[in-house]
Every structure is written in C-alpha cells, then in structure tokens.
Write a structure and sequence with these properties.
It is a single chain. By secondary structure, the chain is mainly β. It has a single domain, classed as 7 Propeller (Methylamine Dehydrogenase, Chain H). The strands form 8 sheets. It has a 5-stranded mixed sheet, with no helix packed on it. It has a 4-stranded antiparallel sheet with strand order 1-33-32-31, with no helix packed on it. The chain is globular.
C-alpha cells in the first residue's frame, strides 16, 4: 500500500507539474486564455529600456505585427520580407483608404523559430514567394495574424494566402490555400486563428465571401465551412469554455454570433457594432466581453454576456441589461486594442492615449477617460501580471500602471521604436516585438 501511495503521489506531482508547464506556454493571440493576463512571476519585469533587463534582442527582417507564441523553449513568429520599395507604417491614426496598389518586388512569407533563452534562430521556413495578392492598409502588414501552437505543431495563418502547419522542428506537415478576397477600403486581413482540441478555426470576414471554417490539426482536412453574412472585420474569434459547453464566439458588424464547435449557431444578436470591428472577444468572471469602437463612429458598444444563451438575444436600443446581458455600454469601445479584465476591473485602453476603468461585473464607472503623459497612441492590447497593467504605446514606450481603482503610472519604459504588435509572456519572460526586432525581457 505504501508503494502504491508513493506511485500515486509521484503521478499526481508529475501531472500537476505538467499542468503548470502548459499554463506557462503562450499559445495564441493574448495568451492561452485570450485575456492578456499572465501568471504572476517575480522574474517578470516592471522596468526596462534598450539596455536594462534585456536578456536578448534578435533582429527580424521584413514587416509583421503578429505576436510571438511560445511553447517550452521555442518562440515562433511570422514576417514578410520584400526586396522592393513600399510604404512603411508610422504611428498615429490614418483616415481614408488603404493601398489598393500591389507593392512591387519579390515578397517572402516566413516563419521563424527562436530559442527562448538565447534568441538564436533555430529554423526559418518560407511558405510562399511572389507578389502579394491584395493591397493593405499602410499600418497593416501581410503577417499580422498571430500563430497558434500546441505540444506537437505550430499553425500559421497568412490571412490572404493560406493556413500552414509545421512540427516544432520546422518540418512542413500540411497547408491549406485561402482564396484572397477584397477587404473594406483595401485594409487587408488580420484575424488570428484559434485552436481547440484537434481543430483549428479560421474566420475570414471580407467584402465578398466571408466564412468561418474548422480544419483538422493533424492533416489540415476541412471539417466544415459556414458562410457569414458579414463584411470585413478583423476581430480574432474566441473559444468560450463555460460550465455546460464550448462556444466559438465571433464579433461582426452585423451580428455577434456564438457557434458550437461543429459550426451551428447557438445564439446571436445585433450588437450595433462599429463600422470597423477589431477588438477580440474574451471571458472573465464567467462572462463574455465583446466590443468595438471605431473612433469616428457613434456606435462604440461594450456587451457583457451571460452563459447559456439561445437564439436571438438582441436588446432594444434603450435597454442596458437582459436575460443574457449582464451589462452594456453604448460608447465605451476602443478602436484597435482589446480591453482587459484584471481582478474586479475592466480597463479600456483607447487608441488616442487614454484609459478608462469600470467594474467588471456591473459596468459601474470607476474612472473616466484619463490621458497618458504627452501625446501617445496605442495599437497593441494591454496585458497584466504581478498586480500591474502594462500599456505599450506605438512609440515603443510601455506605461506600467498600478492595477486598481486609481489611474497611477508607476514606470515608463522606452524602447524608442515603432511597436504595434501585442506582447507575449511565458516562463518569466516578456517578449516585445518592435518594427525591426524581438526583445526578450526579464528580471535577472
């Protein structure tokens, strides 16, 4: 009996260690739970600059605003290089159209794998070479979609080109072409794939033939595809794991929809969303948070949804609560950034350099728009750990805020280069992508 007890104890210890390890991996856009919140760790930094607390810096050629994903000792990210001339992104808001003209020169769509501790390139793979099939917004890139990773494979989406799968050693396993479509104002694609079990899900909302589809992770076989009555959106879908079921949540200008994992609609609503729908859905406190907030649109809603909805749950225009709506605010949504819930509070980082805070369960205002110092603009979504909120401005400066009911800046950390990609966190390390490099930052 003692021997059996010892074996069971060792098995439980190994299982617990494995679970902690899996939670420490950063497997998709905004992390394994898609909420931007990392496990507390004393190695995670609060202060840094180009010389302080930098474990390594690796130059990444080309352009890409995808976030890195991390599994154990490997870091994966994407980029697209060109030997031609093209308009490079710059900070600030752009009004008007994207760039319909196809940029000249030979482009290479690349996947990188780096060593987590050294920053050395373990492998680099080209998935395509040629001319881009569509134009793009000057602030967008042809590598804006963040990959997904699990213990066996990394799944890479180039939204106007295809879905590609590699093992961790860089061996190409399968690929699925995607027919490029025109997007609103020629802004290009940006929604990242999401992974659940043996399925990878892709949402491609465009001007002509929007769809959502599921593919088998081992072979790339298409399991199902559903057309969507939507025009272009850029929000990454979300797997909402509730007590009773898993739901595939999509934000859309026409409808917010929940699908089961076989593509059947569970519930939907007219969310009266912005003309440009970009922030991604996420969950906290057992609730679903969905928003959009194009800065020139009078519709900038936040919706907080309860579990168990069925059918059409649309509220009347003046209603702020419902059977499946915990709370709603018509003018709180951000443009590019996805909000974050940390503790009891729901924080909204506005692109034009302001933060708001509301109670996550009730929507009660804690503080209204409060401006960051000087003029700063934001595209990257905020993240949190160790009781702090982190906000990366487009100029490369990260503002560190004390989490809680008071807007209080604790640190200001400059990297002095354009930053639009949302950072990633894993195993006590912070990964920040700038226009030219990937930084790994950690306390010594």
């Amino acid at each position: 009996m003692k021997a059996l007890s010892l074996i069971l104890s060792l098995w439980c210890f190994c299982l617990a260690t494995r679970n902690v390890s899996s939670q420490e991996n950063w497997t998709r856009f905004r992390g394994p739970n898609a909420d931007g919140v990392a496990q507390d760790n004393p190695q995670l930094p609060t202060q840094w600059n180009q010389n302080e607390n930098i474990l390594w810096k690796t130059d990444i050629p080309g352009l890409g605003w995808s976030s890195p994903v991390i599994w154990e000792n490997k870091v994966f990210l994407t980029t697209v290089t060109s030997d031609g001339t093209f308009e490079k992104p710059k900070s600030g808001l752009y009004n008007g159209e994207g760039r319909k003209e196809i940029p000249g020169g030979k482009h290479q769509w690349l996947v990188y794998c780096l060593d987590r501790d050294q920053g050395t390139v373990l492998w680099k793979k080209e998935v395509h070479q040629g001319t881009p099939p569509v134009g793009r917004h000057p602030k967008n890139t042809y590598a804006s979609e963040t990959p997904c990773v699990d213990e066996h494979r990394v799944y890479v989406l180039f939204g106007d080109l295809g879905l590609y799968c590699f093992d961790h050693g860089g061996r190409a396993l399968w690929d699925v072409p995607i027919e490029p479509e025109e997007t609103m104002r020629d802004y290009g694609a940006a929604a990242s794939p999401v992974l659940e079990g043996n399925r990878i899900f892709v949402q491609y909302d465009n001007a002509n033939a929007s769809f959502i589809a599921a593919f088998e992770t081992t072979t790339g076989k298409e399991l199902w595809r559903k057309p969507r009555e939507e025009k272009t959106t850029w929000a990454t879908p979300f797997i909402w794991k509730t007590e009773s079921r898993n739901e595939l949540i999509t934000a859309g200008r026409n409808r917010i929809r929940s699908y089961d994992l076989d593509g059947n609609v569970l519930w939907h609503m007219d969310g009266r969303m912005s003309v440009l729908t970009i922030p991604s859905p996420f969950a906290a406190h057992g609730l679903l948070y969905i928003t959009s907030g194009y800065f020139q649109d009078r519709r900038r809603p936040v919706w907080v949804i309860k579990q168990g909805a069925e059918g059409d749950i649309t509220l009347d225009v003046l209603e702020t609560k419902g059977a499946f709506v915990q709370w709603h605010h018509p003018k709180l949504g951000p443009y590019n950034t996805t909000p974050i819930v940390y503790g009891d509070y729901y924080y909204t980082l506005l692109d034009q350099g302001m933060m708001t805070c509301h109670h996550a369960l009730s929507g009660e205002e804690i503080y209204d728009r409060t401006r960051f110092p000087l003029y700063t603009s934001f595209t990257a979504s905020p993240w949190a750990y160790n009781g702090k909120i982190f906000c990366l401005a487009e100029n490369g400066t990260t503002f560190v805020l004390q989490a809680g009911p008071e807007f209080k800046i604790l640190e200001t950390n400059p990297l002095e280069e354009l930053c639009l990609a949302t950072p990633s966190i894993a195993q006590g390390k912070l990964f920040i992508r700038t226009a030219s490099a990937l930084y790994c930052i950690t306390n010594p």
